[in-house]
């Protein structure tokens, strides 16, 4: 491609490519479903732990006040498993908790597949078709301290230029996309799979990578929080940079 | 630009090949949730997980890792609305389970019944594993029992068999495929933390299915039926109670 050709295409193209728009649509629907079903699943046991073990009879790292299970009352008198009364105990529940996981879990995994398959296609087309290199990955000259600083200052003073409704991204924008695509999304998938007994049965090393089942669950939650913050900023920036134009660019593509 | 098109063509050819593979696959071994839109993700997960390396052992822990463990879904032989089977369980419990028998029937060469002592005389396995509840909590405990595989082989499981259906005294029915049933860590456990299995945790014998969620480690075992097809368990199975059939995730 001639050096000038890229600039010419960039100024001509206003919307996003069709495959980007399709992937964005499916991923948006999947993310909303994952958040909805994920919060429901968390409500059934809103306690987070580190390591391999965590349950109502062990201390939590944090308890989220998001359902009546937060109060987790109603246990029989604990019975020690061993002679040591301070050792591990067994106690029986006598309290019916909020649990809509029967459909929540299946919906979560269905949405996860809806994220994984288009996500994988996006990555393959994006990497081998050059979209990532051309539009998403920050160029070395953009990573100069002065340019990053200017972009940071622009964001602080909320100087948001009107967008063309297509790919022409700032350096902070590119960096956040790279973090989402190459760090947060794989982290979400792997920490999720580390909670699957059949998957860690085949690949037990994942438990060591995350520091245990409960650590994987907590990291899954913390990554969800970061991704939700990203989505909030993403939507705020879409609104600030010309909502109608941006939505047109990502839907009908003009 | 030529290179780009070639790459795209190669990509399309690759996707086509994967699609072709999926179409020529034998779908008759799909779980009973096959065709249900909500469970589509679970079916995909099941198909994908069955392509993973099999018969690897799940992580085992040390005695020092053993933790407290809550008990959910406890049988109540004194409940006013108890079924006949729960009432029978109460009688067996009162008799110290000496009258308890586990029946192994269906597609086996010689249907058998085992008393608790007969099960204990079979070669045993002790493992310290993590129990993971679908709710999100986990616990580590030591389990002692006879591998389900040993019991099925003793009864002479037939070559056509595809599913093992388990019935419990608290009226649950569930079926698992042979990959899980024959897994070396799938136990009929009668011991927990070096003692007899306590009632809240499934006495006298419960299943330990380490490759699926804790809910599928059925307590209070009563009967095992080997079948040539999957069984959704009807009104007492997971499906009609809203759960997925496969819980390896």
Binned strand content of chain A: under 5%
Which value, in Å, is the CA radius of gyration of chain A? 23 Å
Main sheet strand line-up of chain A: 1-2
Helical content of chain B stands at 10-25%
So, CATH architecture of chain B? Alpha-Beta Complex
Can you name the CATH architecture of chain A? Up-down Bundle
For the largest beta-sheet of chain B, the strand count, sense and barrel status come to: 5 strands, mixed
What separation lies between the terminal Cα atoms of chain A? 24 Å
Oligomer: heterodimer
Q: What's the pLDDT, averaged over the residues of chain B?
A: 90
Tell me the total number of β-strands of chain B: 11
Q: Secondary-structure element order of chain B, as H and E?
A: HHEHEEHEEHEEHEEEE
Structural class of chain B comes to: alpha+beta
Give the full name of the CATH homologous superfamily of chain A: Transmembrane di-heme cytochromes, Chain C
> Number of helical runs of chain A?
10
Compute the separation of the termini of chain B in Å. 44 Å
The rough form of chain A would be described as elongated
Query: Structural class per helix/strand content of chain A?
Result: mainly alpha
How many domains make up the 3D coordinates of chain A? 1
CATH topology of chain B: Sulfite Oxidase, Chain A, domain 2
Notes on the protein architecture:
The complex is a heterodimer of chains A (254) and B (249). Chain A has 254 residues and is mostly helical. Chain A has 10 helices and 4 strands; from the N terminus they run ααββββαααααααα. In chain A, helix 2 runs antiparallel to helix 3 (101-128) and helix 6 runs antiparallel to helix 9. The two termini of chain A are 24 Å apart. Chain B has 249 residues and is of the alpha+beta class. Chain B has 6 helices and 11 strands. In chain B, a hairpin with a 5-residue loop joins strand 4 and strand 5. The longest helix of chain B has 23 residues, at 2-24. The radius of gyration of chain B is 21 Å and the shape is globular. Classes of the chains: A mainly alpha (254), B alpha+beta (249). At the A-B interface, helix 2, strand 4, helix 3, helix 7 and helix 9 of A face helix 1, helix 2, strand 1 and strand 5 of B. Strand 4 (89-92) of chain A pairs parallel with strand 1 (69-71) of chain B.
């Amino acid at each position: 491609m001639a050096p000038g050709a890229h600039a010419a295409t960039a100024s001509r193209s206003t919307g996003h490519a069709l495959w980007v728009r399709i992937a964005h649509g499916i991923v948006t629907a999947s993310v909303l479903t994952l958040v909805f079903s994920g919060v429901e699943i968390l409500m059934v046991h809103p306690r987070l732990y580190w390591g391999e073990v965590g349950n109502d009879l062990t201390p939590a790292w944090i308890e989220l006040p998001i359902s009546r299970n937060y109060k987790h009352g109603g246990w029989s008198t604990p019975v020690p498993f061993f002679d040591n009364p301070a050792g591990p105990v067994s106690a029986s529940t006598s309290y019916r908790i909020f649990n809509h996981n029967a459909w929540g879990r299946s919906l979560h995994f269905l949405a996860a597949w809806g994220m994984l398959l288009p996500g994988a296609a996006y990555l393959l087309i994006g990497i081998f078709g050059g979209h990532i290199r051309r539009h998403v990955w920050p160029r070395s000259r953009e990573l100069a301290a002065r340019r990053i600083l200017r972009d940071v200052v622009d964001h602080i003073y909320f100087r948001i230029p009107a967008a063309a409704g297509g790919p022409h991204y700032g350096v902070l924008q590119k960096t956040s996309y790279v973090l989402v695509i190459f760090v947060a999304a794989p982290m979400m998938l792997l920490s999720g799979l580390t909670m699957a007994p059949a998957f860690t049965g085949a690949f037990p090393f994942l438990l060591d990578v995350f520091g245990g089942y409960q650590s994987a669950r907590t990291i899954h939650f913390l990554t969800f929080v970061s991704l939700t913050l990203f989505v909030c900023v993403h939507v705020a920036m879409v609104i600030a940079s010309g909502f109608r134009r941006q939505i047109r660019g990502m839907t009908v593509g003009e | 630009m030529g290179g780009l098109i070639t790459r795209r063509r190669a990509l399309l050819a690759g996707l086509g090949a994967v699609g072709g593979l999926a179409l020529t696959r034998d779908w008759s071994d799909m779980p009973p949730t096959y065709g249900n839109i909500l469970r589509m993700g679970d079916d995909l997960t099941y198909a994908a997980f069955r392509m993973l390396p099999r018969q690897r052992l799940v992580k085992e822990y040390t005695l020092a890792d053993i933790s407290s463990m809550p008990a959910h879904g406890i049988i109540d032989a004194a409940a006013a609305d108890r079924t006949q089977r729960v009432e029978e369980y109460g009688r067996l419990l009162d008799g110290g389970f000496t009258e308890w028998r586990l029946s192994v029937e269906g597609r086996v060469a010689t249907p058998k019944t085992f008393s608790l002592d007969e099960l204990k005389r079979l070669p045993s396995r002790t493992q310290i594993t993590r129990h993971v509840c679908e709710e999100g909590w986990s616990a580590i405990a030591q389990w002692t029992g006879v591998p389900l595989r040993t019991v099925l082989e003793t009864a002479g499981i037939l070559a056509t068999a595809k599913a093992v259906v388990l019935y419990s005294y608290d009226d649950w029915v569930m079926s698992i495929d042979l990959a899980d049933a024959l897994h070396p860590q799938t136990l009929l456990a009668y011991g927990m933390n070096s003692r007899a299995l306590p009632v809240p945790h499934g006495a006298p014998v419960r299943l330990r299915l380490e490759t699926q969620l804790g809910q599928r480690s059925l307590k209070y075992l009563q009967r095992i039926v080997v079948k040539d097809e999957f069984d959704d368990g009807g009104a007492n199975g997971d499906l009609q109670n809203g759960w997925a059939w496969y819980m390896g995730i």
